[in-house]
Amino acid sequence: MPLIVQSDHTLMVEVKHPKYTDCRDFLAAFAELEKSPEFIHTYRITPLSLWNAAALEIEIDEIFDGLKKYSRYDIPQNVLADLRDWYSVYGKLILRPYKNSMLLLEVKSNIILDRLLHEETVTKYWRGTTSKGLLIDIKDRGNIKHDLVKIAYPVKDLCGFTKGDDFNLKLLEIDRDDNIFNLRDYQKEAVEAFYHSGRETGGNGIIVLPCGSGKTIIGLATIARVSNQTLIISTNNVSVHQWRNELISKTDINPDDIGEFTGLSKVIKPITITTYQMLTYRKNRDAKFHNLDLFTLQNWGLILYDEVHMLPAPVFRATVDIQAKRRMGLTATLVREDGKEDEVFALIGPKRYDVPWKVLENKGFIAEAYCTEYRIQMDKGIEMDYALSNKRGKFRIAAENPTKVKLVKELINNHSDDKILVIGQFIRQIEKIAKELKLPIITGKTKNAEREVLYNKFRNGELSILVVSKVANFAVDLPDASVLIQVSGTYGSRQEEAQRLGRILRPKKKRSHFYSLVSQGTTEQDFSINRQMFLVEQGYKYEIRYF
Fold first, then answer.
1. Minimal CA–CA distance to 473: which of 504, 503, 439, 441?
2. CA torsion through residues 517, 523, 526, 528, sign
3. Where is pLDDT greater, at 456 or 170?
4. CA gap 253, 533 in Å, rounded
């Protein structure tokens, strides 16, 4: 069997074993990938990973049966005991409506109840006791969930949601471009997993699906299902326009009912789209976040967080106060570089739906992708600068290795019939590539109108190559891109790797290629190992070549 379960809750999986793929897909539901070298991959089971499994209604006995099925040796008894204890905590604390603007935190364990009565971080919330648990003010609904998850006690919130102002919206059967439009089976399942027929057990949580799989469509279908006024929070102005275009294209909405709350337009309508940057804008560091009032200016029935793993701290804090609103998060990965996955769990909700990337690829819903890392010799002219620099300086020098330009030229020539994105972290580097190869470029300084023109030319075939900065990491609709050349990235960000791969995964007749260019034997190569983990976790083979 391919699996070895160790007493420290780590799981070692033999990659070359014939049952590796089945075992990997099984582990993805309740364990986190930590290391992924060539032959042995290491996963870890954590309380949070088990709480998400419990929220998905994966039974603990199902997890135990699978571990026994794939395990090469007997499973340590302490692991089985710890897993059962961690799993069982989910559901021990249930938040329910009470009376007189109070909520009841039902506690199904006298031991936990005793601890909560004496735990300094949460005693400030208690307003009394009943035979079933503890009373709290309704205004503390978000705060108590946030603080309890920090001490390893997740709350199952069954207080339900307030009804927002009505707004009826229907999906079209034929979109505005005269294409047949139907939800795929997994998209229907995701909507139902979130909505739960309107019961208090649904209405909040995260949908985890790869870029290109139609998360926006799931958002539209959820808006139609809830039929209330909705606030959509996205990553940038380009994404705002995409949401607007998709609403107009695939629903019966009157365009006059869509508002944009951005730096260019501050219009609030039944469906309003804004950005995280807009919500967190303030004149100076000491000023207030006035735009956070948008959460309460309308009686929203649904708040939709696009790319929910990007939530900034002020939006977390604002979300504490809107726990009575339905909240949906959309993301390609639950990984956060700041480690605040538990806050997403507590304040937006648990993972409600997840399908492995390779499963959707095998069914033809996203493109087949080949991932290749090129390890490149350092340019002789920068070796001394590299040797004398600090760690941050070493990373940048390695990332901007001039030798990469030669390989970019070669890869472009090898893919002359493809649509190609060249993406990088450092502006100086990508400006040099664009200038030397005479290619159009989009950076954060590029005006929105100019970006739209270039994106449209890329879509319709007038342009076959675009050089882009990290502004293209999120929510850029480039459905025909089939090659991505990554010349530099944000250190070891698995989150960024997921977004960039997603730029080329929309279904198409040809295979997609993801190239990552890394300077050999440098700190950049060290960071690239962490980025590989995301690709391997999703089942992609990662080929190493040298240049």
1. 503
2. negative
3. 170
4. 41
